[in-house]
Amino acid sequence: MSELVRVENVDGVAVVTIDNPPVNALAASVAEGIDTVIAAVNRDADMRAIVVIGAGKTFVAGADINAFAKMRESKSCGPGHLPFLLRVEDSAKPVVMAIHGTALGGGLELAMAGHYRVAAKDAQVGQPEVRLGIIPGAGGTQRLPRLAGVAKAVEMCASGEPVRAAEALKLGIVDELIEGDLRVGAVAFARRVATESVRKTRDRGEKLGEAATNAAIFATARENAGKKQRGMMAPLAAINAVEAATKLPFAEGCVRERELFLECLFSEQSSALIHVFFGEREVAKIPGIPKETSVRAVKSAAVVGAGTMGGGIAMVFANAGIPVLLKEMEQAALDRGLATIRAHYANSVKRGRFTQDIADARMALITPTLSYDDFSGADMVIEAAFEGMALKKEIFGELDRVCKPGSILASNTSTLSIDEIASATARPEVVIGTHFFSPANVMRLLEVVRGAATSPEVIATCMQLSKRLGKIGVLVGNCRGFVGNRMFHPYRREAQFLVEEGAGIEAVDKALYDFGMAMGPLSVADLAGLDIGWRIRKEHRHLDKPGVRRPFAEDKLCEMGRFGQKTRAGWYKYDEQRRVSVDVEIVELLRGWSLEAGIAQREISSEEIVERCIYALVNEGARILEEGYALRAVDIDIIYLNGYGFPAYRGGPMWYADTVGLKKVYERVREFQARHGETWEPAPLLKRLAEEGKTFAEFRLETGQERAGRR
Ligand code: T1G
Asked: Can you tell me the distance from the alpha carbon of 635 to that of 312, in angstroms, rounded to the nearest whole number?
């Protein structure tokens, strides 16, 4: 009997416990263990029924994702768990699956191969495989429609969204919710059904619907997938597999599912998305700051500035149940900030995201103030004021005066030096950057910026807090623009250069949009406001290298007062309803300015547009890595997926470059350097890895070189 699966006889009911921490992944050895036990119990006349339950915090959270990499290497992976699950289903004695925590992917497939499912009230069940770029591969797309109906099954398999136990009960996925001790409840349930003839999920067809209604369901599902999961292959494969369940007998449906599963598994999209899955967990691990590092309690917070960012950050804390002060200089500004927050909550209630009670409770956690005096009790303060060094230093000087010892002093600056801000206090060890992304209450990314003096305890506290706030915290070093914005600068530079060289404004945006970016770079600029970059460029003009080409287009637009959507004119023009259109006047003006600047106009392919913009990101990312401002290439990937709309199915800019091959990327960068000058000087790390045939994913900084990890 493997120690991963143990069995106990509870008055004639065999309780089979899966114990494969941390999430009871359905590794081959676990499946083997369950298989053996069920066969033995069926031979044991004293045993009347079987309960399968998970040890620890969850039922089975899926197949072992680590095994997929091996399958890809060996280019083979056998029938998977299908035959094993058929044997579970063929058990003559009823098998009751007892679900707590999550039953996801292979975990739900195992549960559905059982004859009954009972669940704890807070359990969740789902088929999240599409998030890994694959589809259920062990009968999930065939059994789920038989239990939950076609519409819900296709929605769950295509979106990957889990459902809560109460809804699973309504849908027929679960047979009973257990109050109190799940194990006790499941054994009692098993006793009740012990004498009933087992019902195999695969034999149930009553919910497989009619061809006509199903055709409409699948058409809508494909349309939704095309919109919400643009560019991803797995959701469409999942829809095809569920459709097969409605058209083919169970066994043939499983064969079709397996074909689609393998197509996805051996795709670049799947390896990219599995890279992202483990990457989102790896970024939480900071070399030199062990998991045991003590953290500070953050039971109360305060935010300086109730503008767009400040208001959004206050909502993030309130949404996490943390009381937060919100300070402004004047009452009018405070009222405006509070009104915006109220409007956000009202909008969420209107869209049914949560109830009015929840909105009221969250609003009640936000306390407006015009004075710093109330800050003395705050465990953490986040400054979100205007992006000017003098003002920030004045604020931090004030915070240093009023905040209690041990309070964490954070700045939401997106470009300014944390060390210089910290120099305005006598306690730089508690000063840190917490760079939220707009809208702060929506965007998942949080760049945690380490200053030269920031203590490991403060870093550990902020990294842990980011998870509590529903964010993905990524630790970065204190360089100009940190990681995200520093890389975004050359990306946006190339987008402007391409327009100046003759590419259409729409063509540039379309090329990147088709590549998978959530939005084209010029549309993003119009949304964010062209004036923000313009003001920063003017403030840093003294840093520009003489003789080095720099884009002029956006400066010209700003000189015309075209700041983007907020002025209903930027790269594009916008009507009252913010509908966008190309402004031919600007197109002509741009051509004139370019010719004046002696820039030859030429046809530019979308391939070149993508390469110029994405390789500019990659080249700057390589610099950031070798300078130690990012801990790993995956940290950069997670930043770009969660803060800049980079397509997850491409794994992030550094993973994408590895997929293309650094040799090819390097050669292309050299070509751009030859044509466009030193702005394209290859990063030494890119050159080295390309010549050594290595990847960014393999790259690890020599110990002591990290600036994000350690000063
Ligand atoms: N396989 C291997 N490792 C896993 C894993 C899995 N399925 N799930 C989690 N881990 C690791 C994770 O990397 C982390 O490791 C630790 O467990 C804790 O996870 C055949 C083909 C269950 C909701 O997609 O969504 O089944 O960082 O930090 O926040 O058709 O984990 O500590 O070293 O996320 O409490 C489908 C994936 C697989 C679910 C718990 N299943 N897991 O969240 O902990 S494909 C999934 C999750 C499949 C079948 C197909 C979450 C969770 P480390 P954690 P958490």
From this structure: 24
Residue 503 pLDDT exceeds 50: yes
Give the single-character DSSP code of 648: G
Rounded Cα–Cα distance for residues 595 and 549 (Å): 15
Of 317, 332, 274, 10, give the one whose Cα is nearest residue 131: 274
| Ligand 1 neighbourhood includes 25 CB (under 6 angstroms) | yes
65 lines ligand 1 (CB under 6 A): yes
CA–CA dist 55, 214 (Å, integer): 39
Residue 525 has pLDDT above 70, yes or no: yes
Distance (Å) from CA 62 to ligand 1 centroid? 7
Instruction: Please write the tens of the pLDDT for every residue from 606-630.
Output: 999 999 999 999 999 999 999 999 9
Please give the average per-residue pLDDT across 324-334, as a whole number.
97
Q: Give the residue numbers annotated as catalytic, written as ranges.
A: 109, 129
Which of 303, 568, 570 has its CA nearest to residue 434? 303
- CA–centroid distance, 61 to ligand 1, in Å, is 6
Please state the atom number of ligand 1 nearest to the C-alpha of residue 138: 30
b/e per residue, 49-58, with b = 16+ CB within 10 A?
A: bbbbbbeeeb
pLDDT for residue 711 = 41
For a ligand 1 pocket test, name from 4, 18, 20, 23 the mutation site with the most ligand atoms within 8 angstroms of its C-beta. 23
Mean pLDDT on 413-428: 96
What is the CA(4)–ligand 1 centre distance, in A?
17
> Is ligand 1 within 6 A of the CB of residue 133?
no
Query: Which residues share a beta bridge with 559?
Result: none
Check pocket membership of 137 for ligand 1, CB cut-off 6 A.
Answer: yes
Per-residue b or e along 465-476, where b marks 16 or more CB atoms closer than 10 Å to that residue's CB: bbeebebbbbbb
Q: How far, in Å, from the CA of 316 to the mean position of ligand 1?
A: 26
For residues 311 and 337, the answer to whether their CB atoms sit within 8 Å is yes
Atom nearest to 134 CA in ligand 1: 21
Cross-strand bridge partners of residue 432:
410
Between CA 60 and CA 100 the distance in angstroms is: 9
pTM here is 0.95
Per-residue pLDDT of 666-706, as tens digits, reads 999 999 999 999 999 999 999 999 999 999 999 976 655 55
**C-beta 104 within 6 A of ligand 1:** yes
The Cα 419–Cα 586 span in angstroms is 41
Between the CA of residue 319 and those of 365, 378, 460, 644, 673, what are the distances in Å?
9, 17, 21, 23, 48
Contacts of 612 (CB under 8 A, 6+ apart): 494, 497, 498, 672
Residue 200's pLDDT band (boundaries 50, 70, 90)? very high
Residue having the nearest C-alpha atom to atom 52 of ligand 1: 61
Distance, CA of 339 to CA of 35 (rounded, Å) = 60
Nearest atom (ligand 1) to Cα of 160: 24
Give 290's pLDDT tier (boundaries 50, 70, 90): very high
How many A from CA of 50 to the centre of ligand 1?
Answer: 26
